[in-house]
Amino acid sequence: MRNPWAETGNYKTSYRQDTAIFATYLEMLSLWALVALLLVLPFFLKRPQVFVLDLILVYSLAVLGLNITTGYAGLINIGQAAFVGVGAYTAALLAPSLPFWLTVPIGGLAGAVAGGIVGIPSLRIKHLYLAIATLAFQIIFEWTVGHSTILKQGGAIAMPRVEFLGYKVGYKNHYYFWYYVILLVVVLLAFAFRNLLRTRYGRALVAVRDNDRAADAMGMHPGLTKIFAFALGGFYAGVAGALYAYLSRAVVIEDYMLPVSIKFLAMAIVGGLGSIVGSFLGPAFLVLLDLNMEDLANWLKSLGLSYAGVDIASAMRPLTFGLVIVLFLIFEPRGLANWWRLVRNFFRNWPFKY
Amino acid sequence: MRRLGVLILLALSFGFAQKVHLMWSGAITGPTSDAGKYYAQGVEDYCKYANEEGLTGGLTIVCETRDDQYNNANTQRNFEEALERGDPAFLGYSTGGTLQLKPLIQEVGMTYIPASYHIGNIDPPNNDYVFLPIVSYSEQVIALLEYIAKEKPGAKVALAVHPSPFGRAPVPDAKKAAKELGIEIVEVQEMAKGLDYTATLKRFANKGVEYIVYQNVAGPVATMIKDAKRLGLNIKHAAAHYAGGPDLLRLAGDAAEGVIWVTSYYMPYEDAPGAELVKKLGKRYNRPADTLESVHYPSGMLAAAIAIEAIKRAHAAGKPVTGDAGRAAVYAEMLKLGFDPGLAVGPVTYTKDDHVGVDHMRVLEAKGGKFVPITEPFQSKLFRKVHYGK
Predict the structure, then answer these.
(1) pTM assigned to the model
(2) Fewest CB atoms within 10 A around its CB: which of A58, A101, A334, B162?
(3) What's the ipTM?
(4) Domains in chain B, ordered, with CATH?
């Protein structure tokens, strides 16, 4: 009998094993170890650093939503920031009268409704045409917010300070409190999606992406599946938006505009489209890359590296962002998730190379 | 020997001078960086100058300019870092970033001086700690309407505003002011990225528009002005602070001739102490000609000068200038600040109820490729009435 702790390859003998969330005990253990590490990590970090962690987690949730729509269901979406914005504005409007543990899921539901509506064109159009439809939603969202007095025409809607079980969240504990809330939500929603992928609804997403006519012939409903993908992706985005609203203490339109949608798409590509792990690796990589490039740029600036008014140091950050995306598209279109897969396989087979 | 001792003492005292950090966070790259990069240089250079010339009351002010790329999350992170370090004040930039940070600014009590002159920055709620260096966009636009009403009573005006809180903020006040002034605002047009404004301008012309007032950035204004010239329309153009200036001249060329512009800053070619300071610092720190020409360079200098003056006064009063107590001390000084760094057309004054530093502005007109003042420094007569109802 094989030892489940010392498994070094794939020995699946049943369909049940094939659809297990964790392929091996070691995989399960390493994931729980990571969660444990994430639980204690804020104790070793300063407030601004915890804010960066919060950002990575919120972006991960938004990118996971994008991955559901674009990565798993193959429906190009370049309006993800608008879905995030729907959640954020919903939370901002409800926050004065409802507790955060209600406004966050309601924000997600609002995102899901928006996703479902935006998904309707996917019944008739696909590829670039669908991308333009999602772009239209992004523009409509920005225009609507900009002309709604209830939404302060895109100006700030301040979020109230949160109290939870008599615990008042002030500026000193703000990022720590929200870190744990966001971490809990992220873990739950990531597991929920991982679980969904084992069901027929999850498999239908992939089937429709690969060939919607074949999926139709096999008894799936491609139209409903596409709308479901948009609604689910919108739900994740809406939850991310509601959480971001609390995290940033105010909702301002600039956080939900087209450049942010492009950023989410870049994170999904760098992380790896159609991968849950990639949804975390992409945001983490790009956020940390930007921070490091900022330090490098400041160092270069201190050396006075500037010629004829061209500030080389300042140009480095946007240049690196663009360069990284291009390099990933050329050399590793499967994103960081593929590197993660290679590393995992190496250790799974180690020390036996077969 | 005694002289050597004094020199050593001086060197030691400089070496041991208390360091106070002051951070600016704004767009050196990304949207609006055409203004932000010069603003950052202004902050950096004034800071160096203040340290070198002993304008810091024995403190060493360590200024740090951070590129937030016009991204509110980056601004928030930078602000948190400044707060964590114990900085007593913060120099901000964008409208969105400032509006978003207001609840946190209020909670921690940090003096905040933005480059955005949006009236919402100093309007309630959470407005105690935000201070505008010069008059707000709303006041600038109303001042332009007052000027137009004088020049052409009963004029028909169109507002061309940026599609953002930055652009829209002055519109309600401008409408009220126009009513008081007896001029007609026939249309409010949002514009930002158009490549051709022929249709818009033809519509304006059909409605009899005589003036277009811009609350925008220079790029789209230049496009519209050039289109108006190409179409041969007899429409005058009037720009608020960020819509005009040398940037507009550079972008619009000959078409900018006759454009009127309102700002509180001196031009570098004027005979004024502030203009001399701009030239002096630009030369001292090897800034290129475009920096010296930009109105955003003295803007950054003014913001830094205000913060440094408040820190210096708090220190002179024997109060701490870092940490929680430092923030409170600098804020207390801001509320009674009154000084004239010479960079703008009036002194910087703040009180508990007045969070606008320089209360005066001038109207300038583009003549021969330069903006030249056509009014003396003045305050808007109507702004307080239409905005505050008093």
Answers:
(1) 0.93
(2) A101
(3) 0.91
(4) 2-135+271-358 (3.40.50.2300), 137-263+361-388 (3.40.50.2300)
